[in-house]
Amino acid sequence: MRLAKRSMLLLVLGCVSLWAGAQTIAIGGIHPLTGGLAADGIQMDNAIQMAIDEINEAGGVLGGTPLSFLSADSTGSAEVGQTEAERLINEGANAIICCFQSSVTTNVATIAEREEVPLVIDVAVMDAILDQGFTYTFRLQPNATAMGVNGANYLKELAEASGEAVDSVVVLFEGTSGFGDSVREAFVAEASELGIVVLDEIGYEPFAVTDLTTEMTKINALRPDVLVVTGYYNDGLLAARNAEDVLLDVKAVFGVAQGTYDQAQFVADAGDLAECFLDSNYHHDASNADALAVLARYESVYGEPMRTSAVFSYQAVYVIADAIERAGSADPPAIRDALAETNFDDFLLPHPGPIVFDETGENVNARPVLMQVQNGSIVQVWPPELAEADPLFPCVSWNR
Predict the structure, then answer these.
(1) Backbone torsions φ then ψ of 352, nearest 5 degrees
(2) DSSP symbols for 246-267
(3) Given Cys at both, which of 46, 154, 369, 370 links 350, Cβ 3.0 to 4.6 Å?
(4) Averaged pLDDT for residues 369-381
(5) Do 149 and 217 fall within a single domain?
């Protein structure tokens, strides 16, 4: 539980702020603002601030109370993330949004539970985070099981719709952070149920790997129908380039929670090589005019396209603000209770229903969407009701 001393201090400070007419409700954010994942982390911070600014410009919450933002850099380290969570809570964070990495999020969730401060996970996929009986943690994005299961089914459905057989795959995954391994496990189990043979599962260290040519040569020798890839941006870009180097003989490269193949940066960095790459991942709803307006507003303010991770951070602010309004209070346990009763239908995500959290904190309607690079753009291609374009399959850029 939160320390009694801290609770009394926050009560006193809150009263002083009210008397001074300057009370704010603080939302903390913990993301990797430095290191190899900073491109996402910085955008996620920016998106939180943008959402807070919008809410404040519209009158704040609870009849006029503004929100404020307490930012922290996890540096990509679970230990640093934990320390920063403690700092933000001590500084008065009423709720926290985090963390992009599953290992960091696990540590932060432990602190949030101990201190009774609600945590909304914008991006972090491991099922295990919410398998521990936490009551103060809620997740917006699809978890590892949803990512893997839907990814396998999308691949099967895509192949059948295209009249192409996908009988075998190789899975290439980042194997050190827990993220890639958890998605791999769910994908492999579902693929096997669907009759897809997994010929091999090849792990690598995402922040240390400098060449995947040996792995690609091995994959070519196995002759899978499709290469399935799970990982972060830089290693995903490396995998694409090395696949081209060996002229990988597959019908498609298919990302599952791959942090590369649905990014505008991938198209800019890889050029024509990027064509045809597929990725089943969390995403904004490209058919939602409000979502597109948010992306345009972000690019206008910050001068670069908004990443999907940042959309989820932005969405998290509005979910917390909604909980504060329904709670009628900025007290963290009251916000937590309101989050548990969330039924939020003003969402920007490609989910079949409103944001609703089950008893474990999972968003019951969360699902990924399948995207593909076509003519230099990222477009949604599956499921059909969300498709902006027909999928191209089979298709790899070096064999077009």
Answers:
(1) -75, -5
(2) TT---SEEEEES-SSTT-HHHH
(3) 369
(4) 97
(5) yes
- Give the whole-angstrom CA distance, residue 161 versus residue 157: 6
Band the pLDDT of 350: cuts 50, 70, 90: very high
Nearest to 124 by CA among 202, 180, 205: 180
Q: How far is CA 306 from the centre of its chain?
A: 13
Is residue 130, in this structure, part of any structural domain at all?
no
60: its two tokens? 């704040």
CATH classification at residue 87: 3.40.50.2300
Residue 77 CA to residue 83 CA, distance in Å, equals 10
Rounded CA separation 222/244 (Å): 16
Residues in a beta bridge with 198: 169
Q: What is the residue range of 250's domain? A: 145-283+369-399
25 & 85 share domain: yes
Same domain, 319 and 395: no
Domain assignment of residue 278, yes or no: yes
Cα distance between residue 262 and residue 243, in whole Å: 17
Shared domain for 228 and 292, answered yes or no, is no
Which tens digit of pLDDT belongs to each residue from 160-173?
A: 999 999 999 999 99
Q: Which structure tokens are listed for 10?
A: 């926050």
Q: What percent of the chain has pLDDT over 70?
A: 94
pTM: 0.88
Is 326 in the same domain as 374?
no
Residue 229 has pLDDT above 80, yes or no: yes
**Which residue matches tokens 């404020």?**
68
Q: Crossing angle for the helix pair 38-57 and 289-302, nearest 10 degrees?
A: 110
φ/ψ (deg, to 5) at 383: -70, 165
